[in-house]
Design a protein that fits this description.
By secondary structure, this protein is mainly alpha-helical. It contains six helices and no strands. Helix 3 packs parallel to helix 6. 21% of the residues are buried.
Amino acid sequence: MRKIIYALAQNYGLFPRTTIEEAIARREEITPLLLRSLEALAEDPSVALEDHSFMLHFYAAFLLAQFKEKRAFPLNYQTGVLTCSAGGSAFQ
């Protein structure tokens, strides 16, 4: 599982289709880790604000939405998953 999380953490220039498919296939195992990644970002958003290649929160939001994981909604709202790279919010 950690390998999947690691592969989703950074932008490597290509959409990680194989990794996403593996995460979907292992939904029950990956969900707690994706939720934890959003919780960690809520506690300390500096990694996403300082490293513009950090992508885990976007992929976590995408996968958790596909899984219809209701526990993700407040975390997505809290972390501002839709924050653009310039530091502005999609909600503005």
